[in-house]
Amino acid sequence: MLFGGILPYGAVFVELFFILTSVWLNQFYYIFGFLFLVFVILLVTCAEITIVLCYFQLCSEDYRWWWRSYLNSGASALYLYLYAIFYFCTKLEITKLVSGILYFGYMSIIAYAFFILTGTIGFCACFWFVRKIYSSVKID
């Protein structure tokens, strides 16, 4: 399941650095057009990787694809949170306990929202795919 999160995370990795830098290091973020393009790439990547993994699961006659499709693309939030830990250790110079708790609290909320976003994209794409392939099957 963690394999499905690598590609969507890879799509937003560079942009994530700029967003974290603008939020936590008080720098300006002004590349909103590129951010929209990265968001579209994230949508397509989540949908495609989930459809491929769901297809492999259905080919092995495992029809419990509902939650797995959600977790496959939602796993990219784990990589986002691991990158937030790496960013905390390398870029930020936070030494106070309360500031660290605030940072990890906010990053947990962001990672959870990213999990909900990517998981929903993956589930909807997989749901559409399964309905499409089974609507063309003729039952005798």
From TrEMBL:
<dbReference type="InterPro" id="IPR004240">
    <property type="entry name" value="EMP70"/>
</dbReference>
<protein>
    <recommendedName>
        <fullName>Transmembrane 9 superfamily member</fullName>
    </recommendedName>
</protein>
<keyword id="KW-0472">Membrane</keyword>
<dbReference type="GO" id="GO:0010008">
    <property type="term" value="C:endosome membrane"/>
</dbReference>
<dbReference type="GO" id="GO:0000139">
    <property type="term" value="C:Golgi membrane"/>
</dbReference>
<feature type="transmembrane region" description="Helical">
    <location>
        <begin position="70"/>
        <end position="89"/>
    </location>
</feature>
<keyword id="KW-0812">Transmembrane</keyword>
<keyword id="KW-0967">Endosome</keyword>
<dbReference type="Pfam" id="PF02990">
    <property type="entry name" value="EMP70"/>
</dbReference>
<feature type="transmembrane region" description="Helical">
    <location>
        <begin position="6"/>
        <end position="25"/>
    </location>
</feature>
<feature type="transmembrane region" description="Helical">
    <location>
        <begin position="101"/>
        <end position="130"/>
    </location>
</feature>
<comment type="similarity">
    <text>Belongs to the nonaspanin (TM9SF) (TC 9.A.2) family.</text>
</comment>
<keyword id="KW-1133">Transmembrane helix</keyword>
<keyword id="KW-0333">Golgi apparatus</keyword>
<feature type="transmembrane region" description="Helical">
    <location>
        <begin position="32"/>
        <end position="58"/>
    </location>
</feature>
<dbReference type="GO" id="GO:0072657">
    <property type="term" value="P:protein localization to membrane"/>
</dbReference>
<keyword id="KW-0732">Signal</keyword>
